[in-house]
């Protein structure tokens, strides 16, 4: 007898190789993904070896990383130091450069055996939110949509599915959801007229969406990632989005409003998330896993769409496409 609830868990590991405990955890069918952080990464060869070791345990796992560019870039040594997205917008040929940047990022992530980077950021930069800031392409929704769309084209051309975040927009709320519970007091009409526009315009290009740990009290009393109003009525219903919904990290302070890790992942999946992330706290990940085992959840079929479509060989830096992309970003003084 199953609960009828669909969903899966994405967790992390502590080091640069798998321990026996990690392998045992990854064998659990309710675990559907693994995200890497800076502590898991030394250089490209080591990441390729780690990816291969993970796939030897579970070939079907989604392997993810945050490689947005700017200050949110886990893969550093031996990888291109990508610019913050806001730096792209100031160039005359910004749309072309955004596409090159998306292709470069995706190519390097895929080349070390990972499936996806949680990108691009679709939040608007109101110069209010320190946690968003230069991670956003723009403050203007139309231009943010244009540049994010180009970045997605680049990602897709390299073989990577795109994840837009943080739905329906984290740019107005000033608090950092890593350490606090941000509140955005605007009406749904105000949000629809601004922050929601990039998500609406790109809903068919995005393979996945990650909701914000932000409460929008005029719309719902729960943070967006725990809200059926946001995820079912608005994202699925109004925007007709049929892709994957990843929760943001359920260990973040902004998620603590619904209780412990077991309550958080059940609330996220019940609201409509397909995969819940529980990171940087092994005890919490085990608690979330126990909850999914008790609920007998089944992984949604749509998660398979997030698998990488091409894994380049280590010689990718000699390709004409690579040289063109790097040359374009160097000429714009966006990378060294």
Question: How does this structure look, described?
Answer:
- This protein is an alpha/beta fold and 336 residues long.
- Helix content is 36%, strand content 10%.
- The chain is built from 11 helices and 10 strands.
- The strands form 3 sheets. Strands 6-3-2-1-10 form a 5-stranded parallel β-sheet. Strands 7-8-9 form a 3-stranded parallel β-sheet, with no helix packed on it. A two-stranded antiparallel sheet has the order 4-5.
- Helix 1 links the parallel strand 1 (8-11) and strand 2 (31-36).
- Helix 4 (94-111) packs parallel to helix 5 and helix 4 (94-111) crosses helix 11.
- The relative contact order is 0.15.
- The model has no long low-confidence stretch (mean pLDDT 93).
Share of residues in strands: 5-15%
What form results from the Cα inertia axes? globular
| Rg from alpha-carbon coordinates | 19 Å
Report the helical percentage. 25-40%
Strand order of the largest sheet: 6-3-2-1-10
Number of helices, where a helix is a run of at least 4 consecutive DSSP H or I residues: 11
Distance between the termini: 57 Å
Low-confidence stretches: none
Main beta sheet:
5 strands, parallel
Mean pLDDT figure: 93
The class by helix and strand makeup works out as: alpha/beta
The run of helices and strands is EHEHEEEHHEHEHHEHEHEHH
Strand segment tally: 10
